[in-house]
Fold each of these.
Amino acid sequence: MRKLRWIATGGAVILIVGGVCSLFLLEDSSTPAHASVALNEGAVPAEYVADVQRAGSLCPEITPPLIAAQIQQESGWQTHAESTAAAKGISQFIDSTWASMGKDGDGDGVADVNNPHDAIYSQGLYMCDNVNNIKPLIESGAVTGDLPSLALAAYNAGLGAVQQYGGIPPFDETQNYVTTITANVATYTADDGSLNTGTATPGDKGPAIDFARQIAADDTHQYVYGGEGPHYDCSGLTQAAFAQIGITLPHQAHQQAQGGTTIDGLDNAQPGDLLFWGDATNYWHVAIYAGNGTMISADSEASGINEEPLWGTPTLIKRY
């Protein structure tokens, strides 16, 4: 596990290696995180349920049902499908896109476009990459529309086309692609009222902890200042994790510290509580309490994202 070295002096925790995620505060994101929705697992081939859940949990805007509906449109779940445009595999990557976005999703050491575990994971990464590239275009007014639809359009027609036309391009294929997938999301959405894992209840932080723990265990996710997925800074990670349980947080540690209920001391903390370092004028770091004196934290560029022992004593604990 990667480690970040801290020292405690007079009750204060001081970073001595690497950067800190919120020493320089990030402006709040103008795009709220979308709450994840439950996947209708019965509509997905059983061997791909875990892959779809994972790919739909890499960033808040791209959900498991959207990933599933996109696969249905791309290949009809055919693992060796190939289009007339030479798009390959269950997620239909062309060679040039796979060269830059294709990743090893099952840990066998090979990124294979015809391996559905690799392809579905890479599909999620590519969709989140589209989201992150489109966000500043929306903020600048260069592009209009909702992020998931624009990300789908970019997957089909390319980001350049979305930027050129200021939204979903006026191509029949692309417009039908977006419309069809959006309509089919309902088919892949569970109707039992549960959240991302299908077992969550109101107030249950399990899905948020599981999401953060998965990110910490997968070194393809890196610490990136301002990152909201698939790479994260400290408040980006907590924002994305809490989106899994329908809680929208701002992307700034100090602002996250302003909400929720204050918990008096670590003895009363529960897994899923947010831990803060700083003071009332500037809470500059946040992590998720994982229980038993451990936390899940996006630390710094030097040490990455980790599940690890607490750093000293948090100065504030909040429960959402």
Note: Residues 116-140 form the longest helix (25 residues).
Amino acid sequence: MAASFKTGDHVRWNSEAGEVSGKITKIHTKDFELNGRTRHCSPEEPQFEIKSDKTDHVAVHKGSALHKIG
């Protein structure tokens, strides 16, 4: 399922505060650091960087946590 997402896709996911939506801005396929934490990913299991629709917050999630909108 993760392979079906691409940069620019509008997605939603669940957070502690409820459902959040945003656009995918970057796809990571190798380990990277964000906010002092190492995020583990690979071409087979990428992580998606998403900018929230409502705030300037940037989140990173695996494809299994995301659902396409529209």
Note: The domain at 2-68 is CATH 2.30.30 (SH3 type barrels.).
